[in-house]
Structure formats: structure tokens, C-alpha cells
Design brief:
It contains eleven helices and 17 strands. The strands form four sheets. Strands 4, 5, 6, 7, 8, 11 and 12 form a seven-stranded mixed beta sheet that branches. Strands 14-15-13-17-16 form a five-stranded mixed beta sheet. The protein has a three-stranded antiparallel beta sheet with strand order 1-3-2. Helix 2 (35-55) crosses helix 4 (68-78), helix 2 packs across helix 5 and helix 6 (142-153) packs parallel to helix 9. The protein is of the alpha+beta class and 366 residues long. The radius of gyration is 25 Å and the shape is elongated. This is Flagellar assembly protein T N-terminal domain-containing protein.
Length: 366
């Protein structure tokens, strides 16, 4: 029986590893008449477009266009063989833009793995709709706005799924919350390279109406609406997607109309909930993924230059600590993938990324 299963697996393997031929176009601006560098960036962007086509995912993020070469190198390091082969079928120059067209042999499953690798745990997708007593759905509301603003204030990149053009519906959200199957939501979040999702739903009811007799000849002068938020924080731990945290919070509000009471309920709930959610997110993101990454300033024997780099690294978001290792090497404690630290270093516009892997970044200074 075991021999039969092994033979069957070998026979089926080509179907799972079958490459898909896709055609893609990439372009890049020519700077200082450096056509060779522009062509390199254009090819990298075309290869990224080929991955999107093969995986069936359209990533809505500008970073890929800006750092296509860096992303291409990181993918080859982490997800080897995702593009089996490619050839440039056409290329040309259009004013200050260089473009290439290529045909690529892409493994779809590995392409999906590449998107998973690039998803940022420090980039969080949020959706917290409110269902009002009249069953009207408010996807954007005081609760979601406050949570999003408070997360952004913590130097997190936040994707508001309610207003980012995603295809996530409240019905899909409810189904996922009820069943615990978040696959469809994860696929949507992957479009924005978001590795962590904060999702939930507020169900509200009018628990008391204006004019209600509360006894002793007294009638209630206002309406009362009670809201109940159920939320899940979904992320990655030890390479697996799982619920990192969950909870249930309630709040209420009152007002002259049910609509006013519902709005006050959302305001009150946002005040009660936001601090709790922010602390949960920060604890889960920063507390479970810290790693030590070597940053090498190649060929350096100048202590002042290394100290300057150390100071600059200490001001990069999410860098937890920077230590000296040798005359040309620093060790950075960082809760994210090395590619994002490399991108932040690249943004300093003082260093060239010469080498990048999971635990090491080699730089060349000006």
C-alpha cells in the first residue's frame, strides 16, 4: 500500500509543479542615461507582473514598483525556482522610460508562496463594520476610524479594507467569524501584502425606546442602543496562520433618536475598545517575531561611519536594538523580515544593498 502511494505521488507531482507560461510587461524610468539599470528594474517589474498573473493575485501596493529589484532578489532567496525560466521577447525606449516584454515559466504554487513571504506582519488590514438596529451596515464608522488612526499612530501601516477597494463583504466576514474559516479574507488581505488582520463585527440593538414606561409614572426621555463587538486578530506564528487573539466587548449609547443613540454607542465603544485592541496588536506583532539580523558595511574600517549607521538604524521604525559585532558589522533586533529592514535602509538614500538574505544585509556606503 505504501509503495502504491509513493508511486501515485510521483505520478501526480508534475501536475502540482506544472509551470504556467505568462506574458508580462515592465517599465522603469531612465536616470542619468543609465539604460542598463533601467532595464534591470524593468525586467524585475515584469517578473513581478508575471507572478501576479500566475498566482491570480493583483497586489495593490506601490512598494513593489519602487523596490522591484530588491523584491526580486528576496524572492529568489526565499522561494527558489518560482520562475523556472524567462526570455525577453521585446524591449524598447519611450522617451525617458525603458520597457521590456517577457515570456516567463512560472510555478503558480510557488508564486503564491512568494506573496505569503512578502506579506508584512507590521502591515495590518482592518475591517470592523457596525450593523445598526435597522440592519443598515456602516463599514466606515467611528469605531473603525479610531482604531485605524490609533494603529497608524504606532507606526503601523494600516489597510482599511472597507475603503481600499477590496471585495470583502460583511456577509463573507460573518461567515468567516461563524465558521472559523478565514481563507477568503486572507486571500483578500494578501492583495495588500498584509500579514495580520484585525476583523470583527458590531451587532447593535435598540434596548430601550423613548417614551417607555420605566415605572412610577416616569417615561424614558431617550433611546438606548447597545452594541456588541466580536473581534479576531489573525496572523502568523511559526509559519502557520492562526487566531492570535479574540475577544468580545459591549457598549451602549443614548440619544433623542435611535440613530443618534447608535452613533453615541459607536463613539463610546470606540473609546473602550481602541486601547485594548492596540495593546493586543502590538503585543502579538512585536512579541512573537523578533529576530537578529546582521547589517554589514562592506569594506568599512572607519568607526565613525559604523557609529553613524548604528544611529540611523536605531531611528528606523520597529528596530528594537542595535549592537556592535565587529568593525564593519552591526546586529539589529527586528520583528520583521529582512527585506523590510533593507527597504527602510534603502530609503535613507546613503547605502546600496549589495546582498540580502534572511539574517544578513550587506551594504556599500557612499
Amino acid at each position: 500500500m505504501k509503495k502504491f502511494l509513493i508511486i501515485l505521488s510521483v505520478l501526480l507531482m508534475p501536475f502540482f509543479l506544472q509551470a504556467k507560461t505568462v506574458t508580462a510587461v515592465g517599465e522603469a524610468q531612465i536616470n542619468n542615461d543609465d539604460i542598463a539599470s533601467a532595464k534591470l528594474r524593468a525586467v524585475a517589474r515584469a517578473k513581478w507582473a508575471a507572478l501576479e498573473e500566475a498566482a491570480g493575485i493583483r497586489v495593490k501596493v506601490e512598494t513593489i514598483a519602487q523596490d522591484a529589484v530588491l523584491v526580486d532578489e528576496a524572492i529568489k532567496t526565499e522561494v527558489g525556482g518560482v520562475i523556472k525560466d524567462y526570455k525577453i521577447t521585446d524591449e524598447g525606449k519611450d522617451n525617458d522610460i525603458y520597457w521590456v516584454k517577457l515570456s516567463a515559466e512560472v510555478l503558480p504554487e510557488k508564486a503564491k508562496k512568494a506573496f505569503s513571504f512578502l506579506s508584512k506582519n507590521t502591515k495590518i488590514a482592518v475591517m470592523l463594520p457596525v450593523v445598526l438596529p435597522n440592519n443598515e451596515v456602516r463599514e466606515t464608522n467611528p469605531l473603525s476610524e479610531k482604531v485605524i488612526n490609533d494603529l497608524a499612530a504606532q507606526n503601523l501601516e494600516v489597510v482599511d479594507l472597507a475603503s481600499a477597494g477590496s471585495e470583502l463583504s460583511v456577509k463573507t466576514l460573518k461567515s468567516a467569524m461563524d465558521s472559523g474559516n478565514f481563507m477568503e479574507i486572507r486571500n483578500i488581505a494578501n492583495q495588500f501584502l498584509s500579514g495580520v488582520m484585525l476583523i470583527g463585527k458590531v451587532e447593535s440593538t435598540a434596548t430601550a425606546k423613548s417614551g417607555k414606561d420605566v415605572g412610577y409614572g416616569i417615561t424614558l426621555p431617550f433611546n438606548v442602543v447597545t452594541g456588541r463587538l466580536t473581534y479576531r486578530l489573525i496572523g502568523e506564528k511559526n509559519g502557520q496562520k492562526l487566531v492570535l487573539a479574540s475577544g468580545y466587548v459591549s457598549g451602549r449609547g443614548h440619544g433623542p433618536t435611535v440613530e443618534d443613540a447608535a452613533y453615541r454607542m459607536m463613539e463610546n465603544l470606540s473609546t473602550n475598545v481602541s486601547n485594548r485592541l492596540i495593546s493586543v496588536v502590538l503585543e502579538k506583532i512585536k512579541g512573537t517575531n523578533s529576530k537578529r539580523i546582521e547589517v554589514v558595511l562592506a569594506g568599512n574600517n572607519d568607526l565613525d561611519k559604523l557609529l553613524e549607521l548604528k544611529n540611523e538604524l536605531s531611528y528606523i521604525s520597529w528596530v528594537l536594538s542595535v549592537e556592535n559585532k565587529s568593525e564593519d558589522t552591526l546586529v539589529v533586533e527586528y520583528p520583521e523580515k529582512s527585506i523590510y529592514l533593507a527597504t527602510a535602509i534603502d530609503d535613507l538614500m546613503k547605502y546600496e544593498i549589495k546582498e540580502l538574505d534572511k539574517y544578513k544585509i550587506v551594504l556599500r556606503g557612499d
